[in-house]
Amino acid sequence: MEEQLAEVLATVTPVAQRVAARMLWDLHLRQDAVQETQIAAYRMVVVGPPFPDRLSSWAVTVAVRKCIDVVRRQGSANIVPMADLPEGGPPPGGSPHEHDPTRDLQDEELLERLRVALHHERRFRVLKLWICEDRNGREIAEVLGISEATVSRDKGQIIQRFLELHPEHRQED
Asked: What CA–CA distance (Å, rounded) separates 93 from 150?
């Protein structure tokens, strides 16, 4: 039974992690959903009916349901219908890091490392407006007094530089 459980968890866990990463923004909620999916797999091995032929399909279905359950348990206070979200504003309920006093220090250190890695002040300002302030190309162009085409080129060069520094994130075609 232990071998069967290990085999099932080896299939179920990565699937559950991918589903949770796509559905949940909070690391702790993702971990909860993955663990609950693993518990459901354990129950199927120990007492439940036999697994379906496609274990990965079962894992996706269960992981999606567990993600939804985790969000429901968290409470509906932070859930706002999409139509009620302010255009371009921050999401309601604040940042997932709003209670972390070290977050600002970490952000500043990360920004300084990015500034050094980019070797270009304008591209760094484009990155900061794009990622930190969630501005679109037109807004960035207006703030920096450059064309939208320049912003678009800078974004492409930022992505290219990131992929040079982190080739593990490059998607294979």
From this structure: 34
SS3 content of the chain, % helix, strand, coil (to 5): 70, 0, 30
pLDDT in tens, 57-80: 888 888 888 888 888 887 644 444
CA 152 to chain centre: 23
- CB-based burial of residue 82 (10 Å sphere; 0-12 exposed, 13-18 middle, 19+ buried)? exposed
Neighbours of 55 (CB within 10 A): 16
Residue numbers in the chain where pLDDT is lower than 70: 51, 75-107, 169, 171-173
User: Which of left, alpha, beta for 26 (phi over 0: left; psi -120 to 50: alpha)?
Assistant: beta
The rounded distance, in Å, linking the Cα atoms of 3 and 6 is 5
3-state secondary structure of 35: helix
- Measure the CA angle with vertex 35, ends 30 and 39; round to 5°: 150
Listed residue (78, 71, 76) closest to 36, CA to CA: 71
What are the structural domains, with CATH classification, of the chain? 2-76 (1.10.1740), 103-169 (1.10.10)
